[in-house]
Write a structure and sequence with these properties.
By secondary structure, this protein is of the alpha/beta class. 45% of the residues lie in helices and 15% in strands. The structure holds 5-amino-5-deoxy-1-O-phosphono-D-mannitol.
Amino acid sequence: EKGGWNSFMAKEISEGPEAVENTMRGRLADSHVELDLGALDDEALRSIDRIVIVACGTANYSGLVGKYAIETWARVPVEVDLAHEFRYRDPVLDERTLVISISQSGETMDTKMAVQHAKAQGARTLSICNTQGATIPRESEAVLYTHAGPEVAVASTKAFLAQVIGQLLFGLHLARVRGTMADEAIAEVVAEMRELPAELRQVLAEQEAVHELAHWMADSRSVLFLGRHVGYPVALEGALKLKEISYIHAEGFAGGELKHGPIALIEPGQVVFVVVPSPRNEPLLHSKIVSNIQEIRARGARVIVVAEAGDAAVLPYADVVLRVPLTLPMLEPVLQVVPLHIFALELATAKGLDVDQPRNLAKSVTVE
Ligand code: M6R
């Protein structure tokens, strides 16, 4: 039950820290990650030369975050595909390809069929799933359960955090098995991952600004989201959540794409959320996103930034600042997405909508 919360979505957002803790539980050693992937043993993981991630919706966006981490750490090329696009194509796969499916429910029809499509062509298969014993993990050679706990609200929130964590764990495991990352470097990521639950609690405790924003924006007709690198999937996720439960037109863009079209949408008063990487971690990316902000502000956009607590450089460019604690670049999405989830929830609530049962949507899409 909702345990005192007004909606399952609100309850599940509040459960983010435990979801992340439970996904990591028993899997973090000091300088490595312990994963038992059954048939996908070290030898199998050394034999693959490519990874394809297949998923839908929010799970697909978590896969985009996973791609950056796995490629950086394990030096294996990763593609991310929508399961329904993948299954109706003729993708190039063989026994050296690992197809990772990501699904909260483990019952999404297109994702299940994508796994079957992959198996039929001899690819290896791993399922990252939140539901014990669901169909997709049963169809896969190996499974990494996310242990986020049951997710009832149609809008996926804590499961996204756990899916990102699951892929970070897998990426570190693969990096060790393939010898692409020194123990000290793995230890540094592990140490930062251990901080995430406390940092998430801090983010959840400091969302007064989001609340005010949502009330102020309840009549908006269109909201844009911008990000780069791992902030790009965060932007896509922020936009999806807003569409889903508040029925406001929303789009996510990669910062570098602005000049290739989307900047034409900017007119005075247009609200744009910008996901900003920490300047301490990523000075170059930070300066690129600040340039994007300058470009849209010059055209009258109202800019709401999600930025790291110590980032003073972004202040002159923001109308509203939503703060998150400093972490490593690949871990940033876990913290940055939370204010966007809360924003969607608060805005839909301000509009008087049923956030748990948005129109036209089902929790799991088991038909086509
Ligand atoms: O159960 P799954 O993770 O396979 O579901 C995939 C999507 O249907 C799901 O993430 C959907 O996009 C959510 N409603 C997003 O909030």
